[in-house]
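Hi Y.,

Following your request, here is the sequence exactly as I used it, all 195 residues.
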Amino acid sequence: MVFQNSSLRKINCVKHVKRENKLKTLQSKNVVLTSKRLEVLHIDLFEPSRTMSLGGNYYGLVIFYDYSRFTWTLFLKTINDAFVVFCKLAKVIQNEKGLDIVSIRSDHGGEFQNEYFEKIYEENGIHHTLSTPRTPQKNGVVERKNKSLEEGARTLLNETKLKKYFPVDVVSTVCYTLNRLLIRLMSFTKEENQI
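Below is the corresponding structure, written out as tokens. Let me know if you'd prefer a different format.
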């Protein structure tokens, strides 16, 4: 098809370039960049629903394990609960499994950049890496996982016609299912399944 109007061709080219750039930034990686277990954890908060769940939770804390792509989803009443919930999970991982968290990657949201988190990072020797502000593509691993969880939960709620105050249960179900379906086969072990 030949365009006779040069301005129309320029508009289509610009749209095509923008679409290509967007696709390039959101593509997933098929290589494991970490060499040992719990070398990098990606963490982020998301709001699964504007409606409070039956347990009084509004927020979800997603912790994404870079080595095997395993995901933990923990739920919070307020954003300030992220510290307590993260500390509990870190203790479970470090005490029960004998693993040390080496590095954590998060966005510049501020939830993981306060004096409490900084103290935990120092005490446990955890390196905290921040992505570039206002660029969710730089923290893309956990942002894609958040999107998968939210879309899966929305689909499950719509298909089952559940009431909208079940988002926590639905997100937990979606996370459980994704963990069983999408974990890298090369690094999945029975032990990691129990973390």
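The longest strand covers residues 40-46.

Thanks again,
Q.
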